[in-house]
Structures are given as structure tokens and as C-alpha cells.
Amino acid sequence: DTLGSATQIVPALVGKNEPTLKFAAALRERGLMAVALRPPTVPPGKARVRFSLSAAHASEDLSQARQAIVETGRELGLIHETLILLHGSGLHFGASESEIEHLDLPL
User: Fold this and answer.
1) How many CB atoms lie within 10 A of CB 68?
2) I want to staple 38 with a disulfide (CB 3.0 to 4.6 A). Which of 11, 33, 42, 47 is the partner?
3) Distance CA 29, CA 18 (A)
4) Long-range Cβ contact pairs of 73-82 (< 8 A, separation 24 or more)
């Protein structure tokens, strides 16, 4: 859940603090700038990892980031079979197969 973000700052809602910290740390180990936000910065139960996108990111950068996010989320048990799309405007959770297919991004 990206909480409806339409800006260059894209949150990925995780919920609990500890999994959020682990997710952010694992993503940083993979070379992504991932910032964990927890209470009191966000409401209790709404901990999230924040990503910042820029025009300097090429499509390949976004594809690699998406792949790292999906793999890490699955490894940590945060992502099951939900389809995730990272393209241009940010992370999209629950996208349909057809939306992903036309972008030619590997899952």
C-alpha cells in the first residue's frame, strides 16, 4: 500500500515496527535508499519504508529497485502473491497481470 502517494516520495506501508526496520535494512544492503518511518513520526501500526524517486532514475533503475523490493519482501514474509509494480509514479500494490505485462517488467 503506497497510501495514495502521487509525489516523488513513495511509502510502502508495512505496519509493525520490527518488520519495517528489517525490510529497510535488507533493502539498504541491496543498495536501495530505504528509510524506515515509525511512531511517533507516523501513527502506531502504520510503520512504513519510504523511497524517493527522481527524474535521474532510469527505467532500468526502477526495474532493479522493484525486483529488489519484491525479492526482499518475499524473503521476509511481507509479500506473498500480491503483484507489485514500480513504474514512473511509484510502487503499485495489487496491480493486475495485464498492467504488469504491458510494461515488460519481470516479477
Assistant:
1) 18
2) 47
3) 17
4) 73/23, 75/26, 76/19, 76/22, 76/23, 76/26, 78/14, 78/19, 78/23
- What's the predicted TM-score (pTM) here? 0.71
Q: How far apart are CA 46 and CA 55, in angstroms?
A: 28
CB atoms closer than 10 angstroms to residue 61: 14
Q: Report the greatest alpha carbon distance in the chain.
A: 40
DSSP H stretches of helix in the chain? 17-29, 59-75, 97-101
Give the tens place of pLDDT for each residue, 65-103.
988 998 999 899 888 654 544 444 445 444 444 444 434
Residues in the chain: 107
Cα–Cα distance, 20 to 105 (Å, whole number) = 25
